[in-house]
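Lab notebook, page 48
Experiment: co-folding of the full assembly
Goal: obtain a model of how the components sit together before planning crosslinking
Operator: M.T.
Materials (sequences as entered):
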Amino acid sequence: MFDIAKVYESPADDFDVFIRITREEDIAVARQMAKQLAQEAGFSLADVTKIATAVSELARNIYRYAGQGKIMLKKKTEEKEGPYLEIIASDQGPGIADIDLVMTKGYTTYERSLGIGLTGVKRLMDSFAIYSEVGKGTVVIAGKKGRKF
Amino acid sequence: MENLRSNYGDSRVVPIIALNEFLLVPIQIDLDDRTVGLLQQQILEEIEKTRARAVIIDVRMVDIMDSYISYTISETAAMARLMGCRTVLCGLQPPVALTLAQMGVMLQDITIARDLEHALLLADSQSGVG
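Observation: model returned without errors.
Model output:
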């Protein structure tokens, strides 16, 4: 069983970037920090943009639906194939009752939205997993591999 | 609108340049949620004031556009259209275009141009609102 609370309590030291999302401004802070880390890790400009955009979507989801949470980023540059970056978005908000439904493109409970956030993140990243429990919170873990060329 | 104004004050977030019958909006700052909301309000007010025929939004300097920013720009264009004003978006950077396409973001109610020159041409050549 995936432990949502344990992920939320992860120590900040385990990550290269650790951002608490509590205010709307933190969404922009998160994407700028993600952009910087991805650049440092050696990702191409296209991948830097995809990573920063994915982080922006995840941070906004935290702010909108859970009120607060954390974005945690970890880079692994020692990979032979190129850089690798893991994004963990974690909150202790209301959780998602029907994950399949929220992963449907165009579905949204927020009026000012394209309903593209989570499906968009999944499309931008190489790996994507979502864990959620009603009343406990939500964790999204996404990874991006950098191509060498 | 009045309510928004009292919350945010009358601050201008981006320069809006009136050029013939067009409004030129070069975005040169990171668009956080508050800024993009202010931008929308500001554009609509300027359309009303100047009776512009087209708004040209230049996003050449914008390096991250997520679905919310896209949504708000699209919504602004839809509002402008209802006011009889066309919206032309230009200068989308290749990585931004790639990201939006991959996410499946459609920019509706907006004419897309390659650059400012192309945008001015499109804004000028097309009569009516599309």
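Interpretation: The longest helix of chain B spans residues 33-50.
Next step: discuss with group before ordering constructs.
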